[in-house]
Amino acid sequence: MAVLDCRGLACPQPVVDTKQALDQMNGEELIVIVDNASTCNNVERFVQSQGCSTEVKQRDQDFYIHVQKTERDDTGKTPQSDRKARKVVVYVSSQQLGSGDEALGSFLMKAFLKTLLDFKSQPSRLILVNSGVRLAGEGSKVLETLQMLSEKGVEIVCCGTCIDFYELKGKIKVGRISNMYEIIESMLEADRVIKP
Fold first, then answer.
1. pLDDT tens by residue, 137-162
2. Are strands 2-5 and 30-34 parallel, antiparallel or unpaired?
3. Contact 170, 138 (CB under 8 A)
4. Residue 179 has pLDDT above 80, yes or no
5. pLDDT tier at 118 (50, 70, 90 boundaries)?
């Protein structure tokens, strides 16, 4: 059994270290130790996306993530049922669309998201970074639109570092907190990335 101690490491280092450990595993169990719930969730999501089973045990302030590799198909990829289709990713790096007048930029972003909702074909993921995370926060003028996109199957992910920077912890009302490793991975795996 291998043990990987990631306590005290900033995001996305625990995910990166876990990936390296998984790449070297030969079927034995891996235990990843982290010291906060957000990092625990990020690592757990990552290992599950790699086709691994997980069990989390909490001891005091630490989380012990027990990871076991599971069978993959003969192509070496995670079985299709365990993978989410990632065709089109929308990458939103601001709460406004374009540069210039703030009121116009806010109106254009609202129009963009509302129009996106009306399309029959939906993106698989909407990534919110920098001030874009404010769109998913309480009081946002586009919150209802984002919730409807989420209900239609669009996965909404928010940069955890950005949430901390804008002091929005506990105020995000739609989507989930993500990390830079997962954000980059989504963009690399996408057939198309749209940046409004």
1. 999 999 999 999 999 999 999 999 99
2. parallel
3. no
4. yes
5. confident
Q: What is the per-residue DSSP string for the chain?
A: -EEEE-TTPPTTHHHHHHHHHHHH-SS--EEEEESSHHHHHHHHHHHHHTTEEEEEEEETTEEEEEEEE----TTSSPPGGGS---SEEEEE-SSSSSSS-HHHHHHHHHHHHHHHHH-SS--SEEEE-GGGGGGGBTT-TTHHHHHHHHHTT-EEEEEHHHHHHTT-TTTB-SSEEE-HHHHHHHHHH-SEEE--
Enumerate the domain spans of the chain.
2-71, 83-194
Q: Are the C-beta atoms of residues 79 and 73 closer than 8 Å to each other?
A: yes
What is the CATH topology of the domain spanning 83-194? Hypothetical Protein Ychn; Chain: A, (3.40.1260)
Classified by CATH at the fold level, domain 2-71 comes out as Translation Initiation Factor IF3 (3.30.110)
Counting every residue written for the chain, the total comes to 196
> What's the CA gap between 36 and 47, in Å, rounded?
17
d(CA 116, CA 196): 11
